[in-house]
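User: quick one, fold this
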Amino acid sequence: MAGMADEDLATLDPARTPDTAASVDSPTSNSLTPDSPADSAADARAADARPNRIGAPAASRWVNRLVIAGLVLAALNLRPAITSLGPLLKEVREGLGMSGTVAGLLTSVPALCFAIFGVTAPRLARRWGPAAVVCAGMVAIAAGLAIRPFAGGTVGFLAASGLALAGIAVSNILMPVIVKRWYPERVGAMTGLYSMALSLGTAGAAAVTVPMTDALGGSWQLGLGVWALLAAVAVLPWVFLVRMRSGGGPSGSGPSGSDGGSTGNRSASGAAPREAAPRSRITRSPTAWAMAVFFGLQATAAYITMGWMPQIFRDAGVSAGTAGLLLAVTMVMGVPLAFVLPRIAARLNHQGVLVVILGSFGLVGYAGLWLAPAGGAWAWALLLGVSNCAFPLALTMIGMRARSGAGVVRLSAFAQSTGYLISIPGPLLIGALYQHSGGWDLPIALMAALMIPQIAAGIFAGRNRTVEDEI
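Assistant:
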């Protein structure tokens, strides 16, 4: 990570930096049109002073609409590969002869791919440009989703899933770059639109996969493979944007042809101002490690929920269609709370109280799953949906635990990459416990037990201090 440019790494959490927060609230940020080259000298100097701002090209109204369509369609495709599988996991296991341990591996693959392929995204963007990499990511998603149901075995299914998840990983990292490049004064609004589309795709895939499978004759292969069509549609606007860039259109960023962010933000002298990054290692900061553990454990809970919760309900006697709807309810809770939590967290000196509240919801939800999984299924789904909103809280805390823009970049990169690595064993262990115990008592007990260190790490990370103070 140390070799990456600061402006490339800034894609990990663009909306929570002090600079962008100020720009979102500006009364002059009404238009969705990128900045004009004819900005006044004072505006240009102000822009150069913002280390996180990437210059946006001039564009016509239809091109702006094309970018918005590309963002929304890409966001819709960033989770169906994961949440469409959970409601059909039983059929997939039976069809492929997959053991519980291997199924647990399958639910750990997303975190592994996000950790491995996500860190390559900034380098790929510097070489080819963000739009081209996102376009390739959509192609990878479409290909992986189309291939995996018909791969003919567990190894092929895992490999094709990895291809789709690699596309998700790089797109997930680079889409905020597109937002900052085209809409530097509307980062909040456009990020909200992108987040809402992501949540809609997450919940929609969980809710409609089983009914769609039934409508297609009950074939789980078709029920999973049909999501490749949505990804194929998402490729189209990015193809146009890449062609415009290669032809010298608005997506380019200058003579170099790179729109990876390395040429954006230049002063009148032509030099690209860069904020000095802290020299000491981020690993020396206890707060950074607490953030990484908190991020990793909340990701563990999210992937266990997406991969195994439908199976828990189905084993309790709930129908496959209802189990998918329950997962959709859990996922859709993130839509409103993702807007509310960051605002509340930003007003608090210590975010530990929010960590405790979310963790308490999770503990009650797991207790309900253990005692009466079918009887209170809808209540447990709602409670766990609130608990899973630790993700937007974690991103908000990352932005608050560093004083400088470069510090936010380094903390975000460390916390997210380390956190995803931490999250890998959880779903695997749940699958192994389920297979060997023959029930859900032990796995649910483990889920609840993991909530305790998550709360503890979140309280430690929520203290009012910055990593610069510690390193």
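User: anything notable?
Assistant: The two ends are 18 Å apart (CA to CA).
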